[in-house]
Amino acid sequence: MAIFHEIVLAGETYAYATTTTKEQAEKIWLEVPRKTFVFEEDGKVWGTYYIKTNQAGPGSHVCNCGYMVSSLARGKGLATLMCEHSQQIALKLGYKAMQFNFVASSNEGAVHLWSKLGFETVGRLPKAFNHPSKGFVDALVMYKWLQN
Amino acid sequence: MAIFHEIVLAGETYAYATTTTKEQAEKIWLEVPRKTFVFEEDGKVWGTYYIKTNQAGPGSHVCNCGYMVSSLARGKGLATLMCEHSQQIALKLGYKAMQFNFVASSNEGAVHLWSKLGFETVGRLPKAFNHPSKGFVDALVMYKWLQN
């Protein structure tokens, strides 16, 4: 929850309201997803991600994940570790592809990382992300087919 | 509900499970959206659409709509009428743009119609839609900025 609120309050990366309550956050990150993981070391949680079905019915073979890393643990490869883990979990759960629906184009670190991990930018939503200091910036849709 | 089930059972256009119950359908179409409209004539409902916020927080200026027309009322311009109505409602509700997240590329009629009504194809999700007879087809993301 501390990581969630730190990241959501910054308002630069995730499409959650800065006013999201603890109860809403628990619903978003723990209840609605199919699974949620944490990365724990020395008794502390440094990162977390969820995996869920992105669209029901004819879209249910594609999953969606969200990853968050504590500001105290950035630059250590934790996002890479969690993303690679999530792809393995996705396959085990029977998903064929993974989609990120709403990556702020201003979040260059994330865009670069997901590209490096094999995600293709398959969509660009013009001015769909209202950045707290940059104003309306494009949001990207990124996608990776996980199996043939 | 009759229109919803007719369209969802066909499985060709909407990312809802064919097993969606009446209760789930009511939640999807009536409870979760911000507003839901019906087109009624001669005491019967021929079409319906919902409007809702597509992404929270930094994405909350973009809305999403879903439209359904009874098979008994196709080809009469009802989808056009509802889509134009929804754009007016969107502006009244304070939205700046409208996004369709998951248009099956095989649904050529819809793609053509939304294009004609000013929606740009801003994304293509490879094999993201599992069509009952055509198998995995691409899904499109379509987008229209409603005001400057």
Structure description:
2 copies of one chain form a homodimer. The first copy, chain A, has one domain: 3-Layer(aba) Sandwich (Aminopeptidase). Chain A is 29% helix and 38% strand. Chain A is built from 4 helices and 6 strands. Chain A has a 6-stranded mixed beta sheet with strand order 1-2-3-4-6-5, sandwiched between helices. Chain A is globular, with a radius of gyration of 15 Å. Chain A binds chain B through residues 8, 11-12, 14-18, 20, 55-62, 96-97, 99, 101-102, 104, 122-132, 136, 139, 141, 143, 145, and chain B through 8, 11-12, 14-18, 20, 55-62, 96-97, 99, 101-102, 104, 122-132, 136, 139, 141, 143, 145.
Which helices and strands occur, and which strands form pairs?
Two copies of one chain form a homodimer.
Chain A: H1 2-10, H2 22-31, E1 35-41, E2 44-53, E3 62-69, H3 78-92, E4 97-104, H4 108-116, E5 120-131, E6 135-145
Parallel strand pairs in A: 3-4
Antiparallel strand pairs in A: 1-2, 2-3, 4-6, 5-6
Keywords:
Aminopeptidase, homodimer, six-stranded mixed sheet, 148 residues, alpha+beta, 38% strand
